[in-house]
Amino acid sequence: MDDALIFDETPDAGLQMRRLLAIMTRLRDPETGCPWDIEQTYQTIAPYTIEEAYEVADAIEREDWRALEGELGDLLLQSVYHARIGEEAGHFDFASIAKTVSDKMVARHPHIFGQESREKSASQQTEDWEKIKAAERAGAGEAGVLDGVALALPALMRAAKLQKRAARVGFDWPEIGNVLEKLQEEAAELAEARDRLGPEEIEEEMGDLLFVAANLSRWLGVEPETALRKANDKCTRRFKVIEDDFRAKGRSPAEASLEEMDAIWNKVRAADKAS
């Protein structure tokens, strides 16, 4: 192993990519590597891969570009990690991974790298992209419309993708009003299940309600995962104001009444609306 490469900080993209690959090779060396890194597998690393992707999204949401640089590096490390495990097992290596995605991008952009005209609208290019992806799925033996939507996606995101796929072949409501009516119907069924049925039925009705809510998001052009994340952030921020208010009074929210907490919440909510 070339130690000079591992410690080379020259700001060259190609060199730094080789450096990162060399570092991972050293970490995974069975004799001289890091014990923790040597023990890792696809399965044990996968949760970190998912976590790093969300941390990238978080940095973007906060518009923290310095943090984004670091988070993108952490996400790149995940690809390098999986690539090294794959190389050790004889499945693939980083070069084959990069070649595969490069080939895919060239094939999916015939209007840039091929003979097709570039004079298309963004919507037409999206439609063509989906046709190419559908052909790729068919070639991989995924004949069903909903085949290939990853099971490991967050449930809300997966619901939106499933509904988008189904809508492409006409399995969709005629207009948004129908979706709103269905949402109200599912809410009523959930209320009935709460009063008359057991935990399993309540869970099923809750799932149906969330599934329709994801469909409504698609109709409104809203990414449901993003919308819910922003709602979580808003709740966190507003509740922190409640905590700070009571801390200043020498109290905690646990010692307060719902009415007291609600009054502060509504004050913050009104300020948000006015800003």
Could you characterize what this model shows?
- The protein is mainly alpha-helical and 275 residues long.
- The model has no long low-confidence stretch (mean pLDDT 90).
- It has three domains: 3-107, MazG-like (Helix Hairpins); 144-222, Helix Hairpins, CATH 1.10.287.1080; 226-274, no CATH class.
- The chain is 74% helix and 0% strand.
- InterPro entries: MazG-like_dom, NTP-PPase_MazG-like_C, NTP-PPase_MazG-like_N, NTP_PyrPHydrolase_MazG.
- Its EC number is 3.6.1.8.
- Keywords: Hydrolase.
- It catalyses: ATP + H2O = AMP + diphosphate + H(+).
In short:
By secondary structure, this protein is an all-alpha fold. The protein has 13 helices and no strands.
Can you tag this structure with a few keywords?
3 domains; 13 helices; 74% helix; mainly alpha; Helix Hairpins; 275 residues
CATH architecture tag of the largest domain: Orthogonal Bundle
CA-based shape: globular
What is the CATH class of the largest domain? Mainly Alpha
Give the biggest beta sheet.
Answer: none
What is the multimeric organization of the chains shown? single chain
Q: How many separate helices?
A: 13
Provide the residue-averaged pLDDT. Answer: 90
Helix-strand makeup class = mainly alpha
Q: Are there runs of 5+ residues with pLDDT below 50, and where?
A: none
Number of domains: 3
Number of strands: 0
Portion in helices:
over 70%
CATH superfamily of the largest domain: MazG-like
N- to C-terminal separation?
58 Å
**Which sequence of SSEs, written as H and E, runs from N to C?**
HHHHHHHHHHHHH
Can you tell me the CATH topology of the largest domain? Helix Hairpins
Which strand-content bin applies to the residues?
A: under 5%
Family: Belongs to the nucleoside triphosphate pyrophosphohydrolase family.
Domain NTP pyrophosphohydrolase MazG-like: 40-113, 179-239
Catalytic activity: ATP + H2O = AMP + diphosphate + H(+)
Pfam families: MazG
